[in-house]
């Protein structure tokens, strides 16, 4: 299996400054390569510059600017050029598909936060012993940076990435040949129904509360954002106070993100530990959180009718705060490691179908929490009904596969 590990770096002040310079110089290389592609297409009869052409120029670039480009890893600079090439490939793919293309943009130094080293030992070496407090990662032109390794790394380290999040630095390891850690059979199966009132409800009737991390930090976040908004646009990113205000907002968002990830891991662990099969709905989160289309007023040109955008915005915020997509990804990864089975089923009408008689009707869902079948009178909690229908559909899938 392929697995990723993320560890906190503890650089010295001098090492942190060198890491910031590394990001700045890779950002400059990215923007320069983007500018070359734009100029070649506009002024050289729509000439296309590809990754191979730009990679071949690296030797000259490093020799011309040894202080900024020549001291960093050659392979990491190639990875930065591949990153730009992937952005253009995605742009042309969206153009052909008729989607909103989104032309690759220049990166600001504050938004370019990751440098990738494609191979362990080439510009970056992972030097670790399990549970060793002296774990280090060696970076070219930076030195041996101390790592807070909170768990052992298994498998073979393939690629290493250095990432900045606010004022913190992390090392990300992508490992191959990671052995599975199979859990003993539990003999239990479960279906889960995702929600916003409850984060999830199982077919056994267990409700997992929705922690609503964004709502819990809403007041502090609003205060920090109001303070940030007091700086005029003409002075933004030019004063020390503005940078401090921006870091405050970023710090709060980072805390919310870490709390959410921790909650998702713990909830997924509990499900995988206690069940052999976990069934869930296949959810299109991007479609569910899409803003409603405007409704032009036929009687007043240029005016629009109410389309419920304000109410939909609140629902969208709750769905995104719950983080269903991230949770289901974590659940699938943990199931693969533990030898469990996770099945995604069609989500349509799971909360409107009676598990007793199979009657499907909108009227069956009396309220958000109550389900009462209009045909047979079966009554139960609506979320538990949805989870039961998910489990039943997963059973049909297993029968078809068998």
How much of the polypeptide forms β-strand, as a percent range? 15-25%
* Biggest sheet strand line-up: 2-6-7-1-5-4-3
Order of helices and strands: EHHHHEEEEEEEEEHHHEHEEHHEEEH
Give me the secondary-structure category.
alpha+beta
**Number of DSSP E strands:** 16
The portion of residues assigned to helices is 40-55%
Continuous helix count: 11
Overall pLDDT, averaged? 92
> In this structure, how is the largest beta sheet organized?
7 strands, antiparallel
Distance between the termini: 25 Å
Radius of gyration: 26 Å
**How many distinct folded domains?**
2
What does the overall shape look like? globular
Low-pLDDT ranges: none
Helices and strands in order, then pairings?
Layout (H helix, E strand, L loop, with lengths): L2 E8 L2 H31 L7 H6 L1 H7 L9 H23 L17 E4 L6 E4 L8 E4 L3 E6 L7 E10 L2 E9 L12 E6 L3 E5 L4 E3 L3 H4 L1 H12 L10 H35 L2 E6 L2 H4 L6 E2 L7 E2 L3 H14 L1 H15 L2 E6 L23 E3 L6 E3 H20 L1
Parallel strand pairs: 8-11, 11-14
Antiparallel strand pairs: 1-5, 1-7, 2-6, 3-4, 4-5, 6-7, 8-9, 9-10, 12-13, 15-16
């Amino acid at each position: 299996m392929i697995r990723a590990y993320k560890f906190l770096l503890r650089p010295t002040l001098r090492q942190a400054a060198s890491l910031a310079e590394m990001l700045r110089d890779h950002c400059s290389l990215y923007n320069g390569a983007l500018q070359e592609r734009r100029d070649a297409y506009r002024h050289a009869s729509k000439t296309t510059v590809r990754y191979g052409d730009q990679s071949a120029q690296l030797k000259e670039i490093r020799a011309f600017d040894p202080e900024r480009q020549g001291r960093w890893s050659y392979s990491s600079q190639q990875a930065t050029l591949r990153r730009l090439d992937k952005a253009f490939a995605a742009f042309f793919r969206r153009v052909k598909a008729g989607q909103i293309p989104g032309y690759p943009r220049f990166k600001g130094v504050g938004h370019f936060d990751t440098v990738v080293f494609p191979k362990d030992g080439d510009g970056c070496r992972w030097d670790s012993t399990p549970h060793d407090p002296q774990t280090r990662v060696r970076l070219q032109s930076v030195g041996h940076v101390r790592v807070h390794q909170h768990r052992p790394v298994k498998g073979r380290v393939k690629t290493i990435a250095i990432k900045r999040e606010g004022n913190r630095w992390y090392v990300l390891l992508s490992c191959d040949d990671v052995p599975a850690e199979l859990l003993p059979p539990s003999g239990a199966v479960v279906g889960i129904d995702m929600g916003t009132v409850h984060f999830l409800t199982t077919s056994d009737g267990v409700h997992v509360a929705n922690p609503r991390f964004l709502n819990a930090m809403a007041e502090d976040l609003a205060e920090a954002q109001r303070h940030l908004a007091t700086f005029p646009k003409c002075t933004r990113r030019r004063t020390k106070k503005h940078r401090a205000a921006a870091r405050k907002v970023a710090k709060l968002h980072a805390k919310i993100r870490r709390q959410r990830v921790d909650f998702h891991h713990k909830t997924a662990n509990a499900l995988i530990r206690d069940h052999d099969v976990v069934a869930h709905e296949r959810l299109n989160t991007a479609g569910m959180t899409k803003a409603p289309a405007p409704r032009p007023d036929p009687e007043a040109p240029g005016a629009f009718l109410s389309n419920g955008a304000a109410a939909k915005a609140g629902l969208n915020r709750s769905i995104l705060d719950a983080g269903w997509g991230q949770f289901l990804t974590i659940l699938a990864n943990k199931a693969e490691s533990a030898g469990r089975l996770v099945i995604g089923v069609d989500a349509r009408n799971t909360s409107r179908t009676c598990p007793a008689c199979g009657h499907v009707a909108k009227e069956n869902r009396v309220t958000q929490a109550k389900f009462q079948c209009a045909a047979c009178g079966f009554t139960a909690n609506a979320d538990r009904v949805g989870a039961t229908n998910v489990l039943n559909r997963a059973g049909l899938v297993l029968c078809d596969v068998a």
